[in-house]
C-alpha cells in the first residue's frame, strides 16, 4: 500500500485528526517558545550540524574509538550489518541468559530491525516500558509519532485499553489514575526482569559513555535495575567528544518536547564493575552498532545529511502533511518529513517509494530542524531516484513519463505550446462553465476532488503582448 | 530602468491578467518593460517531480534568453525560488561549469515582483486604489525560500481604500505543492480545507498572494464551495487606481 492509500483511510478518522491537531499545535507552540528564548539558538543549530558533519566524515575512526572505550569499561561491542544480524545478536544474548521476558525502553532502532517478533518467536516476551510505547504495544498497533508514539490516542481510548489489558474495570480516564495503573503494572516488570534492551540517543567515543534521554524515569529503571543491559544504536549516533553533549543536550529537549532541560538524562559507561560506577548499572553491558543501510546513505552526497537526525520529531509537529495524514500513513517507525527521507533509504524504494512524494515541499521541516537537515532537497533527490528506477523498466512508457516529456517539448517550442493552448481551448468547451472546470479528466482528476480549475483564457499573455502597442 | 518580464509558463497560459498588471505597475513607476518571446518554463515541475535531467534543458534555455537582461522580474514566488535555489545545483548535476558561472552572474539580477518594488525601486506606495476587504496568503516559497518577510504586506498597507485582514496561521501551506495536489489529492485537500476556513474567518472578499499557483488552489476551493470570495494576484491589486478600475 502506498502513502496515498493509507492516507485515504487516516484522513477520514475524525478522532485522529482532532487528537493530532491538538497535540501537535500544543507541542509546536512550546518548542517555538523555548527555542526562541535562547539568544544563541541559531549558533547552537550551526554547531549541531557542524559536529554531525565532521563526525560523519570520519565515522569509521570514531566507531572504532567507541568500541575501544566501551570495551575498556567492561562492555562488549557487537557490529550488525543489517536487521537480521541485529536480531540474531540480541535474541542470542537474551537466550544465553535464559530470559523468558525482557523489558525495553526508548528504541526506535529495535522497531527498525523488527526485534519484538523475533523475540516472541524465540519464546521471549518483550515488555515496552515507555508509557506510550506500552500503550501502542498493548493495543497491537504501531507507533504513529517518533517521540509521542501514541499521539493518535486520547485518554478515553487509553482508559478503555487499560481496563481490558490490566484487569482494572473501574479505571476512569483521569490522567492521574491512568498513570497510577501504569506505574503499578510497570514496577512489577522492572523488578522481575533480569534483561533490558534499550536504544541510545548518543554515544561518546572518547569515554565509551552511552546516553538515553527520556521524560518518565521508566528508562532510568530499565538502565539501572536489570543485571544485563543490551543497547542498540545506529552507527550515526556516535559523538567523538564528551563536550559535544553540551550542544545536543540543549538542542534536543528544546526541539523535541519543548523543555529547557530533559527530565531524565541517563549516562552510563560500561558495567558496574567499572571504577566510576561501582554500585550502579548493569553487571553485563552489550552495545550493538547497527548499519542497516546507513553506510549507503553516507555514500550519497545529497542524502548524507539524513544521518544528522537526532530524532527530535520537531519536523513532524510542524508538517502540514503529517498533521493531517497521521503517522500510520507512513507505515514506518520513522514518520513525517524525516520518515519520508529515512524510510525509503532504509527499506528501499520498492517498499517505500511513495514516501518522497508525500510532501508539498513547503519547507516547514527544514526551517524547524535543529540540525538544519535540508529535507525538501533530499525529498526531491529521492523522487529522482524513484523516477530513474521506474524509467529503467516499463515506467518509461507510463503516463507520467510521457506527459513530462510532452510538457518539456512544449516548453522548448513556444509554437507547440501555442498550438496546445489553442487545442485546450477547444477541448475544454464542454467542461468549462463561467470560466471554471469542475471535473478535470484523468490523470488530473484528483484535482477535482475539492477544487475547481480555471478555464484557459481566450488569449495567453504572450499573444496579448504581440497585439499591444509599445508602452509609455 | 529596463525590466525584462519573466511571465512564467503558468501565468502565461492561465493568468495573463497578472502579467498585464505587472506591466501596468512597472510602467507607472517609470520602468521600460520588455518581453522576450523565446522564454519558457523555469523547469520547476520537472525538477520537483524527479525529472532533473529534463529540467536542465530548461535551465539552459532560461540562461540563454535572459543572459544580457538588466533586471528580470517574475510575479511568481515559486519560480523565483526554483531558479535561486535549484538552478546552481542542476548545473552542477549536468556537469556544466560554464552554465554554473553564467547563472551565478544572472541570478542576482532576478527579482520576485514585490522584492523588485520594495528593494530595487524602493517604493511601497505604488499609487494604487482598491476599496475592498483583503486577506493575504504568504506562499511557502515567499516565506521560507525567498524570505520575503512583510514586503507584500507593506505594499498592501499603502494601497488606498484597502482594508487588510490577516490570517491566523499565515505560515501554513495551502496544500498545493505542484503535482502533490494531484498525486496526494486527499491530503492536499485536507490542508486546503483548513486554509479556506482561515480565509473565510477573516471575512475578506478577496484573498491575494504573490503566486498564482497557491491562488489557483485556494481559489479552486473557494469557487467549488461557492463562498463568493475570490482570489486576485497582488500585482492586479497594485495595478488598480481610482481611474483605472481593473478589479476583476
Write up what this structure looks like.
The complex is a heterodimer of chains A (472) and B (248). Chain A is globular, with a radius of gyration of 26 Å. In chain A, the strands form 3 sheets. Chain A has a 6-stranded parallel beta sheet, with helices on both faces. In chain A, strands 8-5-6-9 form a 4-stranded mixed beta sheet. Chain A has helices at residues 3-10, 14-36, 41-57, 59-72, 83-96, 108-112, 115-121, 131-138, 155-165, 175-192, 218-224, 244-256, 294-299, 314-318, 320-325, 336-347, 349-352, 364-368, 375-392, 399-412, 414-427, 461-467, and strands spanning 76-80, 101-105, 125-128, 195-198, 202-204, 209-214, 228-234, 238-239, 264-269, 284-290, 432-433, 436-437, 453-454. In chain A, a hairpin with a 4-residue loop joins strand 5 (202-204) and strand 6. Chain A is 50% helix and 12% strand. Chain A has 3 domains: 38-292, Rossmann fold (3-Layer(aba) Sandwich); 296-396, Orthogonal Bundle (Fumarate Reductase Iron-sulfur Protein, Chain B, domain 2); 398-467, no CATH class. Chain A has 472 residues and is of the alpha/beta class. In chain A, helix 16 (336-347) packs parallel to helix 19 (375-392). The radius of gyration of chain B is 18 Å and the shape is globular. In chain B, helix 12 (212-224) links the parallel strand 7 and strand 8 (230-233). Chain B is α/β, with parallel strands linked by helices. Chain B has 13 helices and 8 strands. A 4-stranded parallel beta sheet of chain B has the order 2-1-3-4, with helices on both faces. In chain B, strands 6-5-7-8 form a 4-stranded parallel beta sheet, with helices on both faces. In chain B, helix 5 (77-93) runs antiparallel to helix 6 and helix 11 (185-201) crosses helix 12. Chain B has 2 domains: 2-120, Glutathione S-transferase Yfyf (Class Pi), Chain A, domain 2, CATH 1.20.1050; 133-239, Rossmann fold, CATH 3.40.50. Chain B has helices at residues 9-14, 16-28, 44-48, 52-66, 77-93, 97-106, 113-120, 140-145, 151-157, 180-183, 185-201, 212-224, 234-239, and strands spanning 2-5, 32-34, 71-74, 110-112, 133-136, 163-164, 206-209, 230-233. The mean pLDDT of chain B is 96. Chains A and B meet through helix 1, helix 15, helix 18, helix 19 and helix 20 of A and helix 1, helix 2, helix 3, helix 4 and helix 8 of B.
Amino acid at each position: 500500500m502506498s502513502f496515498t492509500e493509507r492516507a485515504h483511510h487516516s484522513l477520514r478518522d475524525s478522532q485522529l485528526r482532532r487528537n493530532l491537531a491538538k497535540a501537535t499545535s500544543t507541542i509546536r507552540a512550546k518548542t517555538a517558545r523555548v527555542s526562541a528564548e535562547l539568544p544563541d539558538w541559531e549558533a547552537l543549530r550551526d554547531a549541531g550540524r557542524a559536529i554531525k558533519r565532521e563526525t560523519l566524515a570520519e565515522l569509521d575512526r570514531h566507531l572504532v574509538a567507541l568500541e575501544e572505550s566501551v570495551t575498556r569499561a567492561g562492555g562488549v561491542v557487537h557490529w550488525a550489518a543489517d536487521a537480521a544480524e541485529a536480531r540474531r545478536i540480541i535474541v542470542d544474548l537474551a537466550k544465553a541468559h535464559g530470559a523468558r521476558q525482557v523489558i525495553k525502553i526508548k528504541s526506535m532502532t529495535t522497531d527498525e530491525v523488527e526485534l519484538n517478533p523475533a523475540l516472541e518467536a524465540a519464546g521471549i516476551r518483550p515488555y515496552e516500558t515507555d508509557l506510550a510505547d506500552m500503550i501502542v504495544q498493548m493495543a497491537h498497533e504501531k507507533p504513529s509519532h517518533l517521540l509521542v508514539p501514541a499521539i493518535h490516542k486520547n485518554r478515553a481510548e487509553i482508559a478503555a485499553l487499560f481496563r481490558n489489558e490490566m484487569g482494572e474495570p473501574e479505571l476512569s480516564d483521569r490522567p492521574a489514575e491512568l498513570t497510577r495503573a501504569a506505574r503499578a503494572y510497570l514496577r512489577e516488570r522492572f523488578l522481575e526482569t533480569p534483561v533490558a534492551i534499550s536504544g541510545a540517543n548518543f554515544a561518546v567515543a572518547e569515554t565509551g559513555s552511552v546516553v538515553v534521554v527520556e521524560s518518565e524515569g521508566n528508562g532510568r529503571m530499565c538502565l539501572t535495575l536489570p543485571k544485563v543491559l543490551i543497547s542498540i544504536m545506529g552507527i550515526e549516533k556516535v559523538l567523538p567528544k564528551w563536550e559535544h553533549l553540551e550542544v545536543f543536550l540543549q538542542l534536543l529537549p528544546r526541539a523535541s518536547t519543548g523543555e529547557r532541560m530533559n527530565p531524565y538524562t541517563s549516562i552510563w559507561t560500561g558495567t558496574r564493575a567499572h571504577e566510576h560506577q561501582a554500585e550502579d548499572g548493569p553487571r553485563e553491558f552489550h552495545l550493538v552498532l547497527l548499519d542497516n543501510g546507513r553506510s549507503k546513505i553516507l555514500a550519497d552526497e545529497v542524502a548524507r545529511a539524513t544521518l544528522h537526525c537526532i530524532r527530535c520529531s520537531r519536523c513532524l509537529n510542524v508538517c502540514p502533511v503529517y498533521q493531517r495524514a497521521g503517522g500510520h500513513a507512513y507505515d514506518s517507525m520513522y514518520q513525517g518529513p524525516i520518515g519520508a527521507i529515512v524510510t525509503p533509504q532504509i527499506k528501499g524504494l520498492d517498499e517505500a517509494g511513495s514516501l518522497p512524494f508525500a510532501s508539498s515541499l513547503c519547507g516547514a521541516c527544514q526551517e524547524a530542524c535543529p540540525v538544519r537537515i535540508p529535507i525538501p532537497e533530499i525529498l526531491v533527490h529521492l523522487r529522482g531516484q524513484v523516477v530513474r528506477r521506474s524509467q529503467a523498466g516499463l515506467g518509461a512508457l507510463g503516463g507520467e513519463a510521457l506527459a513530462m516529456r510532452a510538457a518539456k517539448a512544449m516548453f522548448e517550442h513556444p509554437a507547440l505550446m501555442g498550438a496546445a493552448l489553442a487545442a485546450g481551448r477547444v477541448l475544454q468547451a464542454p467542461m468549462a462553465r463561467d470560466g471554471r472546470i469542475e471535473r478535470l479528466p484523468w490523470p488530473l482528476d484528483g484535482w477535482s476532488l475539492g477544487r475547481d480549475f480555471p478555464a484557459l483564457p481566450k488569449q495567453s499573455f504572450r499573444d496579448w503582448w504581440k497585439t499591444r502597442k509599445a508602452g509609455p | 530602468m529596463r525590466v525584462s518580464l519573466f511571465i512564467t509558463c503558468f501565468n502565461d497560459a492561465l493568468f495573463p491578467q497578472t502579467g498585464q498588471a505587472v506591466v501596468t505597475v512597472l510602467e507607472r513607476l517609470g520602468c521600460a518593460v520588455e518581453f522576450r518571446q523565446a522564454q519558457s518554463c523555469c523547469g520547476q515541475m520537472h525538477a520537483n517531480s524527479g525529472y532533473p535531467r529534463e529540467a536542465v534543458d530548461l535551465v539552459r534555455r532560461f540562461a540563454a534568453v535572459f543572459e544580457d537582461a538588466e533586471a528580470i522580474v517574475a510575479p511568481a514566488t515559486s519560480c523565483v525560488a526554483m531558479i535561486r535555489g535549484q538552478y546552481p545545483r542542476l548545473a552542477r548535476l549536468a556537469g556544466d561549469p560554464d552554465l554554473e558561472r553564467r547563472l551565478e552572474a544572472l541570478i542576482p539580477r532576478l527579482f520576485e515582483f514585490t522584492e523588485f518594488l520594495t528593494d530595487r525601486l524602493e517604493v511601497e506606495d505604488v499609487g494604487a486604489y482598491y476599496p475592498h476587504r483583503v486577506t493575504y496568503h504568504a506562499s511557502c516559497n515567499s516565506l521560507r525560500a525567498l524570505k520575503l518577510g512583510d514586503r507584500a504586506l507593506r505594499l498592501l498597507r499603502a494601497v488606498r481604500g484597502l482594508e487588510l485582514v490577516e490570517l491566523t496561521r499565515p505560515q501554513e501551506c495551502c496544500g498545493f505543492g505542484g503535482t502533490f495536489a494531484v498525486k496526494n489529492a486527499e491530503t492536499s485537500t485536507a490542508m486546503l480545507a483548513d486554509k479556506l476556513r482561515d480565509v473565510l474567518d477573516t471575512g475578506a472578499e478577496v484573498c491575494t498572494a504573490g503566486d498564482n499557483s497557491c491562488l489557483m488552489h485556494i481559489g479552486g476551493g473557494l469557487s467549488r464551495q461557492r463562498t463568493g470570495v475570490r482570489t486576485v494576484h497582488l500585482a492586479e491589486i497594485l495595478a488598480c487606481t481610482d481611474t483605472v478600475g481593473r478589479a476583476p
